[in-house]
Write a structure and sequence with these properties.
seven-stranded mixed sheet, 6 helices, single chain
Length: 229
């Protein structure tokens, strides 16, 4: 049995901080004090729990309201322990976030993700139907954790909750851009190769976006799918 619920006690907040720390490894994603402040001020701070009786927190999701008047939220992180991925639970968390936002008259959720991580590109662009709105170079600076000491380039995305994007037709795709199947393993086994992928992708993205193309989807075998803007 699994449940998703608010992290409304100090104990749960500290547990969520520990879970997120375990995923980031060398860098803290967000501290318990900030999590508590976000939760107490009415933002989205939830945990995903597995088990009957002896429950275990296996995921967490944190989002906060955006600029007044724009009806947006920014999703800071949605994360699952590795052994719980691939079960559709991440999608349940995002759907819970979507319904929570809808109930508060929020129409769009934004977030960022590493463009080299194929599983996230597939999940965000293909499964959820979010739209890419921009490419940021070294958005958070150089840190450890997911980027393993490399620069933190990111794709900005927007999830229009009432208008989910559909994959482009093959006739509309004018360029594709492949990425590694598992850059996270590469960062452990061959960090230099992962860094080379980072700089190469940055240049290719700049060239294609500079031509007026836009990222309209992702395909596991072909990579990012570009169409004319």
């Amino acid at each position: 049995m699994r449940t998703i619920r608010d992290l409304d006690t100090v104990e749960l907040i500290i547990e969520a901080q520990g879970l997120l720390d375990s995923l980031r490894r060398s860098e803290r994603t967000i501290d318990a004090g900030t999590l508590r402040a976000l939760q107490q001020s009415g933002n989205y701070v939830v945990g995903l729990f597995d088990g009957d009786g002896e429950e275990r927190m296996v995921g967490a999701s944190i989002a906060f309201f955006g600029v007044p008047g724009k009806r947006t939220m920014h999703s800071h992180i949605t994360a699952l322990l590795p052994e719980y991925r691939g079960r559709g639970w991440g999608r349940e968390l995002k759907e819970h976030q979507r319904q929570w936002a809808f109930s508060r008259e929020v129409g769009n959720i934004t977030w960022t993700f590493d463009p080299l991580v194929a599983r996230n590109a597939h999940f965000f662009l293909t499964v959820l139907g979010a739209r890419v709105t921009g490419y940021a170079v070294n958005q958070y600076g150089i840190f450890g954790g997911g980027d393993a000491g490399d620069e933190s380039d990111r794709l900005d995305v927007e999830w229009a909750l009432a208008d989910i994007a559909k994959p482009p037709s093959d006739d509309d795709v004018v360029e594709t851009l492949a990425i590694p199947r598992d850059v996270e393993a590469m960062r452990v086994e061959d960090p230099a190769a992962a860094h080379e992928w980072r700089t190469r992708l940055r240049g290719q993205m700049a060239e294609l976006l500079g031509q007026g193309l836009k990222i309209s989807g992702f395909d596991a075998s072909r990579g990012y799918l570009f169409t004319r803007a």
